[in-house]
Amino acid sequence: MFHDSSSAIFLTLALTAAAAAAAAKPIIQIREPNPTIDLNFAVRLNLSGVSLVAHDRARAAAMIFSTNTSDARKLRARAPAIDATNTGVTYVASVGVGAPATTYSLVVDTGSANTWVGSGKAYARTSSSVDLGKNISVTYGSGYFEGKEYNDTVTLSPDLVITQQSIGEAIKSSGFGACDGILGLGPVDLTNKTLEGRETVPTVLNNLFTQNKISKEVVSISFAPTTKQPNMNGVLTIGDTDATKFKGSLVYTPITRTAPANRYWGIDQSIVYGAHRTNVLRATSGIVDTGSTLLLLATDAFDVYRNTTGAVLDKATGLLKISNEDYAKLESLYFSIGGRTFEMTKNAQTFPRALNSYVGGDNNSIYLVAGDLGTDLGSGIDFINGYAFLERFYSVYDTTNQRVGIATTENTYSELN
Ligand SMILES: *[C@@H]1O[C@H](CO)[C@@H](O)[C@H](O)[C@H]1NC(C)=O
Ligand SMILES: *[C@@H]1O[C@H](CO)[C@@H](O)[C@H](O)[C@H]1NC(C)=O
Ligand SMILES: *[C@@H]1O[C@H](CO)[C@@H](O)[C@H](O)[C@H]1NC(C)=O
Ligand SMILES: *[C@@H]1O[C@H](CO)[C@@H](O)[C@H](O)[C@H]1NC(C)=O
Ligand SMILES: *[C@@H]1O[C@H](CO)[C@@H](O)[C@H](O)[C@H]1NC(C)=O
Ligand SMILES: *[C@@H]1O[C@H](CO)[C@@H](O)[C@H](O)[C@H]1NC(C)=O
Ligand SMILES: *[C@@H]1O[C@H](CO)[C@@H](O)[C@H](O)[C@H]1NC(C)=O
């Protein structure tokens, strides 16, 4: 089991600053990753302590809690008090704050929008730090932080330096383990009421755009399956998409109109299974989220998947486990997003075998990446396309056009697992 950062698995990813960063220039297509990238963007797996499913479900519950529906109340009553932010898979970026900058390891989170430091390494104020004289507080799953808000210089890479970025300093926090805070890449409305006396706080993306550091308010994420060896196998592109990281064309779909998914990177999708196109998930709303590990499905959709595949819930891991016989028959899931079909292969549905022992599983068993969201269809967040999905498809978070882009990649049909 992992107990600290030294025994955790780190995959080194890289961040490409958009070459087209300069203000008035037309958008320049990025043709290859910038070799001088400075932002150290890594996938950190921390599978100890609590099952992945419980982690993802607590996070989902917190997102659904943002409304006061009966589903939200039911989930709230059932949600375990667990460390919801710091277990499972997190993407950690090295971000500089201040002048001269102190470097912090921040969770890259598309499901929240405040940026803050200080849960691990303390905030080091410099001459660029301006105390805004206001308190800030944000709750995530069962984790939270509260503290003071500053304006400060934030350095993502030498090409991406933001001045007067509103950032939080955690005075009290819980649930962030070895990380120093969060780089919030979610929609700005998620910051509503977090800072006293303010409706919203400009996000890092908002400021990069208003300060003309990027010409489009867009973040794009490319991941590879976790078992693949490190070596430039993932890229976070700020300000544009990177055509070298996906195949064919991007399909864009508007942010869903259904609450509460529409507060996040929410989309509409449906899912069918296998050659007979068995309905698993009717067309409904949910979210794409770097902060979730699994592919989470509303309980009734999850039950259809479980019944259809013959998989059974495994007590030791909390994951679905499938026999060799049923695995031999396992077919693809077909996601319908924005009018296009995306195939999640049998291999993509398989939990990385090399990690079985880290989640309490047997090396010789086969586990699946679909998890039970914990509430039936109709809560407004009926699925979460987490890391298990994102490592097989390219994803684009486009604030300017209020849409999410998805494309296939060289990993979509990869057999590595
Ligand atoms: C949520 O709704 C329930 C029932 O309508 C009500 O009793 C409760 O006070 C509400 N909670 C909040 C935080 O608005
Ligand atoms: C901010 O919070 C602290 C306690 O953490 C409190 O003492 C202080 O009065 C608060 N400031 C404002 C302006 O509300
Ligand atoms: C903080 O930064 C914002 C821009 O993000 C700016 O509008 C505001 O005036 C700054 N506040 C102070 C007190 O410097
Ligand atoms: C991993 O998770 C455990 C349990 O939540 C936590 O105590 C620990 O600090 C985490 N480690 C890292 C490197 O985040
Ligand atoms: C912020 O929340 C309030 C209700 O608490 C709502 O009236 C307002 O429209 C929200 N603003 C934004 C920008 O979401
Ligand atoms: C799954 O199978 C069980 C047992 O056969 C059955 O009770 C249940 O209704 C099925 N659920 C779905 C969603 O097909
Ligand atoms: C299971 O696999 C892990 C990593 O692949 C290895 O470290 C461990 O020794 C294996 N356990 C057994 C019982 O073979």
UniProtKB/TrEMBL annotation:
<feature type="domain" description="Peptidase A1">
    <location>
        <begin position="91"/>
        <end position="407"/>
    </location>
</feature>
<dbReference type="InterPro" id="IPR021109">
    <property type="entry name" value="Peptidase_aspartic_dom_sf"/>
</dbReference>
<feature type="active site">
    <location>
        <position position="289"/>
    </location>
</feature>
<dbReference type="InterPro" id="IPR034164">
    <property type="entry name" value="Pepsin-like_dom"/>
</dbReference>
<dbReference type="InterPro" id="IPR033121">
    <property type="entry name" value="PEPTIDASE_A1"/>
</dbReference>
<feature type="active site">
    <location>
        <position position="109"/>
    </location>
</feature>
<feature type="signal peptide">
    <location>
        <begin position="1"/>
        <end position="24"/>
    </location>
</feature>
<dbReference type="Pfam" id="PF00026">
    <property type="entry name" value="Asp"/>
</dbReference>
<dbReference type="GO" id="GO:0004190">
    <property type="term" value="F:aspartic-type endopeptidase activity"/>
</dbReference>
<comment type="similarity">
    <text>Belongs to the peptidase A1 family.</text>
</comment>
<keyword id="KW-0732">Signal</keyword>
<dbReference type="GO" id="GO:0006508">
    <property type="term" value="P:proteolysis"/>
</dbReference>
<dbReference type="InterPro" id="IPR001461">
    <property type="entry name" value="Aspartic_peptidase_A1"/>
</dbReference>
<protein>
    <recommendedName>
        <fullName>Peptidase A1 domain-containing protein</fullName>
    </recommendedName>
</protein>
